[in-house]
Design goal:
CATH topology of the largest domain: Rossmann fold
Number of strands: 14
Largest sheet: 6 strands, mixed
Number of domains: 3
CATH class of the largest domain: Alpha Beta
Structural class: alpha/beta
CATH superfamily of the largest domain: Nitrogenase molybdenum iron protein domain
Strand order of the largest sheet: 1-11-10-9-12-13
Radius of gyration: 26 Å
Shape: globular
Number of helices: 15
Strand content: 15-25%
Helix content: 40-55%
Distance between the termini: 78 Å
Length: about 425
C-alpha cells in the first residue's frame, strides 16, 4: 500500500503538434537549403553573425589561456574519472571467434562508429561536463572523427569553459552552432561539417524532438526528457540531506520531477519541512520551487519490498538510496539510470565527473535501457565462415526452414550449394 503526503500535478495533455511540426519544417528546410538555412536559423535564433561556424585553433588557444588553472585541474580530474571507467567498460567487451559445430566458425568483431557529432547545450546552464560524457567517451571507444558543437553565448561565440572542455575532451572539429540547426547540420553535413553517423547531447524540447525525428537517418544516444531524481530513504536518513538532494535536481527546470519514497511517514514530513526551509535561501529558488510544487512527490510505503516495487515502477533517471539496508536495495532494484548508494553519494557526483556517465534514460525508459556508455559508440558485428562440408550438411535444414516460411528464393540459395558441391565431389572423385 502507498500513501502520498504530496503528489505531483497530473501530467498535462499539452498538444505538442506545433513543436513537432516546427522542428520537422526546420529539418526539411536544412535538408533542402543546407548552409543557407543553417545560417538563417543561427542568425535568427542565436544571433550568430560569424563568417565561419568552425572554431579556429586561435580561438581554442584563447579559451585555454582564459580559463583558470583551478578549472583545468578540476576538469582533468573529472575527465580522468570518466575515461578510466569507460576504459574498463571497453575492456569488458571482447571480440571472439569460435567453432560452433564442425566446420562452422562464428565470430564477433567490435568496430567504432566512424563519425559522431556531440552537442553541448548552452541554455540557462552551460553543461560543461557533457563534453566529457560524450566526446571523451567516444574517443575511448576509438571513434576517429568526433565533431563538437555548442551554441554561441549572447551571440559572441561558445562559452569559454565549454570550448575548453570540447577541445580538451578530444573533439577533432568544433563548431559554434546551437539547437535544431546544429543537429540538422550534423545529420546532413552542412557548414563544413562532415555528415555524422551518430548524434549525442541533451537540450531543450526542440533539440529532443530534432533527435527523435533524425533517428534512423543517424543513430542517437538516448531520447532526452526532463531530468529526474528519486530518493529511497528510511528513518535512519538525514531529512536535511534528503531535501538538499531533491532540490539539487529540481533546479534543472520547472519540469524536473523530484520524488521521495520512504518507509517512515515521520521522515517524509520532516523532508517536506526541510524543503520549505531550504528554498528560502536557495539561489535557484525560483526554478526549484516551481519544480517541487508541480512535480514533487512524497510517498510512504509499508516496507523495503514495497519501496523497491514503487521505485521500479517509476524507473527514475537518478536513484539515491539512504537506508540501513543499502546493499539489500542494490541487489534487488532493477529499473533506473544510475544508482547512488548511501548518503556519501549524490547525483551531482555522477553528473559532473565521479566516473559514470550522466547521459541517462528518462521518462521510465530505465525499464528497457541503460544510459550512454562506451558501448554506444561501438558496433558489435558478426561473421561466419563455413567449410563446404559444413555448408552441405546444414543446407537441407536451412532450406526447409526457408520453405516453411514461403521464402523459396532463400531456399534456392541453400539447395544450389548442395548441388554445386556434390558436382565438385563427383568431378574430383
Amino acid at each position: 500500500m502507498v500513501s502520498y503526503l504530496k503528489r505531483a500535478e497530473p501530467p498535462s495533455r499539452q498538444d505538442n503538434r506545433t513543436l513537432t511540426e516546427r522542428v520537422r519544417a526546420m529539418l526539411e528546410d536544412i535538408e533542402q537549403n543546407r548552409d543557407e538555412a543553417v545560417r538563417r536559423y543561427a542568425r535568427d535564433l542565436d544571433r550568430w553573425e560569424g563568417e565561419q561556424f568552425r572554431v579556429s585553433e586561435a580561438e581554442i588557444a584563447t579559451a585555454r589561456r582564459n580559463v583558470s588553472a583551478v578549472f583545468k585541474e578540476d576538469f582533468a580530474f573529472c575527465k580522468t574519472q570518466v575515461t578510466e571507467f569507460a576504459k574498463r567498460q571497453r575492456d569488458s567487451m571482447r571480440e571472439f571467434e569460435a567453432e560452433v559445430g564442425e566446420g562452422i566458425t562464428l565470430g564477433q568483431k567490435i568496430i567504432p562508429v566512424e563519425t559522431v557529432g556531440c552537442y553541448i547545450p548552452g541554455g540557462k546552464y552551460p553543461l560543461i561536463s557533457a563534453a566529457i560524457m560524450s566526446v571523451a567517451t567516444a574517443k575511448v571507444a576509438g571513434v576517429p572523427n568526433v565533431i563538437g558543437a555548442a551554441p554561441p553565448r549572447d551571440g559572441q561565440g561558445i562559452f569559454p569553459m565549454t570550448l575548453y572542455a570540447l577541445a580538451d575532451a578530444g573533439a577533432d572539429k568544433i563548431f559554434t552552432i546551437g539547437g535544431v540547426q546544429a543537429f540538422g547540420a550534423m545529420a546532413y553535413g552542412c557548414v563544413g561539417m562532415p555528415t555524422v553517423d551518430m548524434i549525442t547531447g541533451p537540450g531543450n524540447p526542440y533539440v529532443a524532438e530534432a533527435k527523435r525525428q533524425l533517428f534512423g537517418l543517424v543513430g542517437i544516444d538516448l531520447p532526452a526528457g526532463p531530468t529526474e531524481i528519486l530518493v529511497i530513504a528510511d528513518d535512519s536518513a538525514d531529512p536535511a540531506l534528503v531535501a538538499t538532494d531533491l532540490l539539487g535536481q529540481a533546479e534543472h527546470g520547472p519540469d524536473s520531477p523530484a520524488w521521495l519514497v520512504t518507509t517512515s511517514e515521520r521522515l517524509g514530513r520532516e523532508v517536506m519541512t526541510e524543503i520549505d526551509r531550504q528554498l528560502v535561501t536557495l539561489p535557484t529558488r525560483e526554478i526549484a520551487d516551481a519544480a517541487w510544487k508541480r512535480l514533487g512527490e512524497v510517498a510512504v510505503v509499508d516496507d523495503d519490498e514495497a519501496a523497491i516495487a514503487l521505485s521500479d515502477r517509476y524507473a527514475p533517471e537518478h536513484l539515491e538510496i539512504m537506508t540501513r539496508r543499502n546493499d539489500y536495495y542494490l541487489s534487488r532494484l532493477k529499473n533506473y539510470g544510475s544508482l547512488f548508494v548511501g548518503e556519501a553519494s549524490t547525483v551531482a557526483y555522477g553528473d559532473k565527473g565521479v566516473g559514470t556517465n550522466h547521459t541517462l534514460p528518462t521518462g521510465r525508459a530505465g525499464r528497457y535501457t541503460g544510459g550512454l556508455w562506451v558501448g554506444k559508440f561501438l558496433k558489435t558485428v558478426t561473421y561466419q565462415r563455413l567449410t563446404t562440408e559444413a555448408s552441405q550438411r546444414i543446407a537441407p535444414i536451412i532450406g526447409r526452414m526457408c520453405a516453411a516460411e514461403g521464402m523459396l528464393a532463400h531456399e534456392r540459395t541453400a539447395s544450389v550449394r548442395v548441388e554445386r558441391y556434390a558436382q565438385r565431389r563427383r568431378a574430383s572423385g
